[in-house]
Amino acid sequence: MRIPVVERITKANDQVAELNRELLNRHGVLGLNILASPGAGKTTLIEKTVPRLKERFRIGVVEGDIATNMDAERTSAAGAVSVQINTGGSCHLDASMVRDALNQIPLDELDLVIVENVGNLICPAAFDLGTHHNVLVASIPEGDDKPYKYPRTYRGVDALIINKTDLLPHVDFDLDKFKRGVEILNERVASFPLSCRTGEGLEPWIDWLGEQIRRTAAAKP
Ligand code: MG
Ligand code: ZN
User: Fold this and answer.
1) Ligand 2 centre and the CA of 115: distance in Å?
2) Dist CA 138 CA 73 (whole Å)
3) pTM of the predicted model, to two decimals?
4) What is the crossing angle of helices 5-27 and 95-102, to 10°?
5) Which of these, 42, 82, 119, 216, could form a disulfide with 61 (CB 3.0-4.6 Å)?
6) How far apart, in Å, are the Cα atoms of 11 and each of 17, 29, 80, 203, 221?
7) Under a CB-based contact definition with an 8 Å cutoff, are residues 118 and 88 in contact?
């Protein structure tokens, strides 16, 4: 039987993803895959999150970007062990890129690994990286229609950050319309409206993440 090429790629990716997840589980390390369009605030969210957790947990960051290591420098300055993956033009990360990055960081010494995916709302959602949770960073300036336009991405996430809420008074963004769009696709998603700039709303997100880290550590074999 001939298997279509796309299906074969996805299957091979899923096998590597499963191995990544087993590796993280063996070390009791929680893995997050952060998705967003460019400019939504993925790196800024990581920069604001790391200092709030680093007294309690040790954190690694895998930075996916088409070029440059600017983001890895930022997350490293925030206090995380950071590794840069340059995808060389590819618009998403896949499980083998993440496997190579995980081999470069000391998992024995970590509690959390945050993977910052390439800024793109389309294909990153199709590639399981072997992390435990997908986290989507949406932001107010992108507009309230994004759940309707990118249903696959919104459907596949476990947590949703709604960033830049400080801009709500300045732009036409109907929060109820946005939330309705999310609810239709994904009613169990944990939502965190917040502003990385002002710090407002960060606490519930930090609490949620801390709880996920503790659960994964407790399940360590
Ligand atoms: Mg970034
Ligand atoms: Zn892609």
Assistant:
1) 16
2) 23
3) 0.95
4) 30
5) 82
6) 10, 24, 32, 38, 27
7) no
Radius of gyration of the chain (CA): 17
- 36 by DSSP, 3-state: which? strand
pLDDT at 1 over 70: no
List, as ranges, residues with CB under 5 A of the ion ligand 2: 91-92, 123
Q: Give residue-wise pLDDT tens across range 22-73.
A: 999 999 999 999 999 999 999 999 999 999 999 999 999 999 988 889 999 9
Any long-range contacts for 81-88 (C-beta under 8 Å, 24+ apart)?
Answer: 81/105, 81/106, 81/109, 81/110, 87/118
CB 167 within 8 A of CB 140: yes
Ligand approaching nearest to the C-alpha of 127: 2
DSSP letters for 3-32: PPHHHHHHHHHHHHHHHHHHHHHHHT-EEE
Q: Which ligand is nearest to the CA of 94?
A: 2
Ligand nearest, relative to CA of residue 126: 2
Could you count the other beta carbons within 10 Å of the beta carbon of residue 29?
27
> What's the 218 CA to ligand 2 centre distance in angstroms?
34
Point out which residues pair with 159 in neighbouring strands.
135, 190
Measured in Å, residue 99 CA sits from the centre of ligand 1 at: 20
**Sheet order of strands, 81-86 included:** 81-86, 59-65, 112-116, 30-36, 133-139, 159-163, 190-193
Q: How far is the CA of 123 from the centre of ligand 2 (A)?
A: 4
Per-residue pLDDT tens for 98-120? 999 999 999 999 999 999 999 99
